[in-house]
C-alpha cells in the first residue's frame, strides 16, 4: 500500500514529485486554504489569481496542476478543490478534506512521493487527509500481467500483483508515498492518528481486493483460506465450518443456497478478544461469492458485477482484523456466511422448503433472494453466543438502491436508539447512510401456507421486507441492526474523491468506529 509519513519539512522545503494545496470556493472566486501560505509566497502572493485565470473555482473534486515556481523544492503544485469556504471560525469538514486528498492522490498516480499541505487544525483533520489520500491511491492491478498472486495455489487464472503493488497492461503505479505537511511528527496524538489511518485503510483495501477478485478465484473455500491466514497473522481465532460440519449442524439456509454450486458453502467465525473487554460485538456478513440468481436466474445486464455480492462479508472480515490491529478493548466476533448461488440439477428450486439452523422452515419463492437465507443461519448462530449487539452487513436488495441511490446505505434495527447511533457514526466517518423503518404490516406478506415463513413478501418496500425477514432469526432481547449496502458497495462509474471504480469497502469505517465506541462504553 502507499506509504504514509508525517513530514518534518515545511511546504517550501519538502522534496517530492508534487505538493498538494487546498483551494475553496469563495463568493468572489477561489480562496486559498490554510496550508498554502508558503506556496502562495512562491507565487508572489498571486496563486489564487493564477488559479482563477486557469478556470479553477475551488469546487469539490476539482484538480488543477501548475508548474512550481522558484522557491519550492517540487516541480509541480496541485490545487485541489475543497468546496465552499467554511463559516468564520469553522474548520474545514473532515469529509471534504478526505475527498480532496483522495482526488489529489488519484491525480498523482505514477508519482513516487507527494506532499499534502491541506488544512490541518487537529489530529482529526490529519487523519481524514491521510485516509483520503491512502484510499484514493488504491489500485487493483492483480490481473494485469505476470503471475497471479491472489489465486489459490495450483490456479493459473489471471495474473499480476496485489492491490497496490505493481502494474501491468500500461496502468500507472499508485502514488508511492503520502507526506503530510503541517502536522507535529513527534506528537503522540498525531502519530496515533496516522497509525489508525494506515490500519483502517489497509483493511478497507483488503476488502476492496476481495470484492474485485473474480469469482473463479474467490469462492467460499478460498475466501475462508484468506480469513484463516489473516487470523494467524493478527492473533484472531478462526473456525471454518465446511459442508460436512454445516450438514451436521443443520445449517439449511447456507446449504440450500450453496447446493447448486461446485464450490460448497462455508461459515467462518473470526473471534478477536481483548482480556479487559466488557462488551462483545457480533458482526455478520453476507458472502455470496457469485450470485447468478440460481434457478431464478438473473437476466443479462444484471449478473456481470455479481462477484461483489460478498461485500458484506468482506466488510465484516476487514473490520474484525482492523479491531485486532488497533487493539480495541472490546470482543469482536465476525461471521462470514459464504456460498455461491448457481443453477444446476442440484440447485434449490422455487417452492422448496428449507429447514434453517434455528429450526424454522422457509419456503423459497425466489432463489435470487438468497442472501437473507445465508444471513438467517449466521444470525441465529451469532445469537447463541449472546453478544451485546449484532450488526449484519449485506448487499441485500435492489429495492434499497431504488430507495436511496448508489451512494447511501440503509440502516434498520430492532432498537431505535441503536439505529440512530449507527447513523450518527456513519455520518461522522463520512459514509452516507439513512435510517429505515421495519413496518410490522409488511410481515404478513411473508406468510406461507407450507412453511413458517417465505423468503419473499410484498414487492413494494422490498428492502424493508428483507429486514423483517432477518429480524425473525435474531435472538430474543439482543440488540440488532441491519445495514443494506447494495448501493455503495460496488461503484460502476468513474472514480471520484477517494472512491475507486469497483469495490469500495463500504461500511468498514462505520463498523470500526462502532467497535471503538463500544469499547469506550459510549453505546450503553
Describe this structure in words.
Helix content is 32%, strand content 20%. With 524 residues, it is an alpha/beta fold. It is elongated.
Low-pLDDT windows of residues: 154-169
Kindly report the oligomeric state of this protein.
single chain
Task: Tell me the structural class.
Answer: alpha/beta
Overall pLDDT metric: 94
Number of DSSP E strands:
20
User: What portion of the residues fall into strands of 2 or more residues?
Assistant: 15-25%
Specify the biggest β-sheet.
8 strands, mixed
What is the CA-atom radius of gyration, in angstroms?
24 Å
Q: Give the helix tally.
A: 14
* Strands ordered across the widest β-sheet: 8-9-11-10-14-18-15-16
Compute the separation of the termini in Å.
36 Å
Keywords for this entry:
8-stranded mixed sheet, 7-stranded mixed sheet, alpha/beta, elongated, about 525 residues
How do the helices and strands line up, and which of them pair or pack?
Elements: E1 3-6, E2 18-26, E3 29-32, H1 37-42, H2 47-53, E4 63-67, E5 76-84, H3 94-107, E6 113-117, H4 123-136, E7 177-180, H5 188-212, H6 220-234, E8 237-241, H7 243-249, H8 252-258, E9 266-272, E10 280-291, H9 311-326, E11 331-341, E12 353-355, E13 361-363, H10 371-383, E14 389-394, H11 398-404, E15 409-413, H12 416-429, E16 433-435, E17 453-454, H13 462-471, E18 479-484, E19 490-491, E20 502-503, H14 508-519
Helix pairs in contact: 3-4, 4-5, 5-9, 6-9, 8-10, 9-14, 12-14
In short:
With 524 residues, the protein is an alpha/beta fold.
Amino acid at each position: 500500500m502507499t506509504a504514509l509519513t508525517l513530514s518534518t519539512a515545511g511546504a517550501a522545503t519538502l522534496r517530492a514529485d508534487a505538493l498538494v494545496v487546498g483551494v475553496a470556493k469563495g463568493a468572489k472566486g477561489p480562496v486559498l486554504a490554510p496550508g498554502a501560505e508558503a506556496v502562495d509566497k512562491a507565487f508572489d502572493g498571486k496563486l489564487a489569481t493564477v488559479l482563477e485565470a486557469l478556470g479553477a473555482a475551488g469546487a469539490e473534486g476539482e484538480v488543477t496542476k501548475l508548474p512550481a515556481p522558484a522557491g519550492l523544492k517540487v516541480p509541480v503544485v496541485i490545487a485541489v478543490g475543497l468546496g465552499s469556504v467554511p463559516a468564520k471560525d469553522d474548520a474545514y469538514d473532515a469529509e471534504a478534506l478526505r475527498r480532496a486528498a483522495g482526488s489529489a492522490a488519484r491525480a498523482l498516480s505514477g508519482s513516487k512521493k507527494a506532499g499534502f499541505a491541506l488544512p490541518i487544525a487537529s489530529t482529526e483533520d490529519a487523519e481524514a487527509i491521510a485516509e483520503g489520500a491512502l484510499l484514493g491511491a488504491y489500485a487493483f492491478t492483480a490481473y494485469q500481467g505476470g503471475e497471479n498472486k491472489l489465486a489459490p495455489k495450483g490456479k493459473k487464472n489471471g495474473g499480476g500483483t496485489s492491490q497496490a503493488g505493481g502494474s501491468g497492461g500500461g496502468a500507472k503505479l499508485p502514488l508511492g508515498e503520502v507526506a503530510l505537511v503541517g502536522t507535529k511528527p513527534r506528537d503522540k496524538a498525531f502519530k496515533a492518528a496516522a497509525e489508525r489511518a494506515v490500519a483502517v485503510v489497509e483493511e478497507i483495501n483488503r476488502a476492496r481486493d476481495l470484492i474485485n477478485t473474480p469469482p473463479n478465484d474467490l469462492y467460499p473455500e478460498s475466501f475462508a483460506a484468506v480469513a484463516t491466514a489473516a487470523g494467524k497473522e493478527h492473533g484472531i481465532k478462526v473456525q471454518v465450518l465446511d459442508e460436512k460440519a454445516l450438514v451436521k449442524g443443520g445449517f439449511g439456509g447456507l446449504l440450500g443456497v450453496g447446493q447448486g454450486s461446485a464450490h460448497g458453502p462455508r461459515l467462518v467465525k473470526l473471534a478477536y478478544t481483548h482480556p479487559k473487554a466488557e462488551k462483545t460485538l457480533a458482526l455478520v456478513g453476507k458472502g455470496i461469492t457469485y450470485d447468478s440468481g440460481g434457478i431464478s436466474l438473473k437476466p443479462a445486464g444484471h449478473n456481470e458485477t455479481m462477484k461483489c455480492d460478498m461485500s458484506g462479508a468482506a466488510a465484516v472480515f476487514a473490520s474484525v482484523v482492523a479491531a485486532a490491529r488497533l487493539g480495541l478493548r472490546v470482543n469482536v466476533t465476525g461471521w462470514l456466511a459464504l456460498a455461491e448461488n448457481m443453477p444446476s440439477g442440484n440447485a434449490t428450486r422455487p417452492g422448496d422448503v428449507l429447514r434453517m439452523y434455528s429450526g424454522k422452515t422457509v419456503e423459497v419463492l425466489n432463489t435470487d433472494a438468497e442472501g437473507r437465507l445465508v444471513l438467517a443461519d449466521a444470525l441465529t448462530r451469532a445469537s447463541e453466543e449472546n453478544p451485546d449487539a449484532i450488526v449484519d452487513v449485506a448487499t441485500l436488495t435492489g429495492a434499497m438502491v431504488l430507495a436511496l441511490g448508489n451512494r447511501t446505505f440503509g440502516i434498520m434495527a430492532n432498537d431505535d436508539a441503536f439505529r440512530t447511533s449507527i447513523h450518527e457514526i456513519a455520518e461522522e466517518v463520512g459514509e452516507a447512510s439513512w435510517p429505515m423503518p421495519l413496518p410490522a404490516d409488511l410481515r404478513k406478506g411473508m406468510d406461507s401456507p407450507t412453511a413458517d415463513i417465505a423468503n419473499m413478501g410484498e414487492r413494494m418496500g422490498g428492502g424493508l421486507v428483507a429486514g423483517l425477514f432477518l429480524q425473525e432469526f435474531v435472538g430474543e432481547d439482543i440488540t440488532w441492526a441491519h445495514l443494506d449496502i447494495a448501493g455503495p458497495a460496488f461503484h460502476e462509474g468513474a472514480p471520484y474523491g477517494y472512491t475507486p471504480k469497483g469495490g469500495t469497502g463500504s461500511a468498514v469505517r462505520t463498523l470500526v468506529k462502532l467497535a471503538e465506541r463500544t469499547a469506550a462504553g459510549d453505546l450503553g
